[in-house]
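Students often ask why we bother predicting the structure of a whole assembly rather than each chain alone. The short answer is interfaces. A chain on its own may look different once its partners are present, and contacts between molecules only exist in the joint model. In this exercise we take two input lines together and write out one structure for the complete complex. Read the inputs first and try to guess which parts will touch.
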Amino acid sequence: NAGVTQTPKFRILKIGQSMTLQCTQDMNHNYMYWYRQDPGMGLKLIYYSVGAGITDKGEVPNGYNVSRSTTEDFPLRLELAAPSQTSVYFCASSSDTRPYQPQHFGDGTRLSIL
Amino acid sequence: QQPVQSPQAVILREGEDAVINCSSSKALYSVHWYRQKHGEAPVFLMILLKGGEQMRHEKISASFNEKKQQSSLYLTASQLSYSGTYFCGTEVYSSYKLIFGSGTRLLVRP
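Now the answer. The structure tokens for the assembled complex follow.
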């Protein structure tokens, strides 16, 4: 199994540009998450989804948008990129079976805004 | 509210023990522990559930004190491979959302 796949792995954007970070999982997980991790810091939840068509804000949603049209895919959209959005972005997924199952992380997208 | 991890950093000699703590000001439903090596994604270690038992992953174990809303990660007879940053993720009520602490950097030296 591929697990959680993120593309691209690296990207450099200019201020004001837009882009979409792709995330797909092949584990049939209903729960998916987007985090950002600034250098030397912890993970901050941006958005999450509990199933196709259902998304909700996390701790730091400003400047980002998400959609969930299928169980497998959960893209993250950056509009009008700003230097403060320079970070490593991780996508994760988990099963909704109780008790709460572990989150499986993708390898991350390293994004620089210049 | 972000959980508080302590200490922020630990340096050990191979074979020594360490304890990492994770405290929350809110009542918790579960606590997750992940380890992240430099330049890699976080990797799941274990989950502690409210009312659940102490968990173990190889020589790493963890406990959850519901009265204090605190979880502790115990690393015994540390190995070089234990080096990395350890994060706790806390779940408040049955939300399926985790709020992560800022991490504890662990370095194990030969």
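Check your guess against this: The two ends of chain B are 37 Å apart (CA to CA).
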